[in-house]
Amino acid sequence: MYGIEHTGIGVYVMNLTDNLVKIDNKNDYTVILRDNYFKRLLLPPNFKKVKGDFRQYSFAEQITLPRLLTKEKPDLVHFPHFNVPIIYKGSYVVTIHDLLMHKKKGLEATTLSPIVYLIKRLGYRAVFDRAVKRPVKIIVPSESVKKELVDYYSLDPDKVLVTYEGVSDLSGGGPISLLLKKYAIETPYFIYTGNAYPHKNLKRLIEATISLNTERKVKAHLVIVSARNFFVKKLEKLIAEMGAGAFVKVLGFLPNKEMGTLYKHSAALTLPSLSEGFGIPGLDAMEVGTLVLASQIPVLKEVYDCHAIYFNPFDFSSIAKAMELALGMEGNEREARISKARDFVKRYSWNKMAKETLQIYESCARLR
What we know:
The protein is an alpha/beta fold.
């Protein structure tokens, strides 16, 4: 799952791998990669590449991956997501990013037919349940996820370790005027980045934007940046049905540097999500210098502390009120908030996360 096309998990795997390369030259690693990264990724001598060109969550993964691992004979395997092959019997650690799919049920969250969805869901639970019962250690990105996991599965809390994730380098995107022209963006604008899945709660964010422009008479646009897929198409249809096309623009995937510039010059990054495992976009936005408006869910309050403006994600008027507050904030107050947030995010580092993960690897090898 190495690569930004795998969204948050892909970013996690990329940064973990890249930073392990920087900090560890005494342990030997085997990295299993899909064909494109197998060809492109350059690694040092203590990192061996093995091709595993099968889809994640597939039957082929469940059968082929254990064969590859048996051949390699590793002391320890790190599965960076819950999709641990059921038949694998070796020692492993697993990263559980969230319990979203435990909570989100129903056909609105899938593109599958009802029968296929039911079969897939049963398979998901079988794989997930086994993945969290057999590892030496479980890694999670936040205390909020740890609490959910420990409570749901009655796990020993000492078995579940938190390694906070890091901040991306989004600097150097060039003048904002060029991007505004390139993507036909009107100012002032709020920005959302991430998937368009139902739990991201984008309908209420769109309702808030409509309310801001029509009822509150405050001019502001919303830019949604999300890689094109079935859910983005559904979102575009929803925007048309709601009559929000004059206020909301949907863009596809953008390079990191362009994202950084759009963040910096936005009124705020707005995150209305109902469920998260961590919250990288908010940290990225703080680091480049903009305000963050976020759902008052436990995990985002844990990660952002007092450096975001929080709203009730179930009430679009609460979201609109936070947006209006951001637009009306005096320059001095805004800059003071941004400055404190930029200092705050320095505590989050992919390098620190990799060092903590390496300590887990080495402790697990000794525990074996």
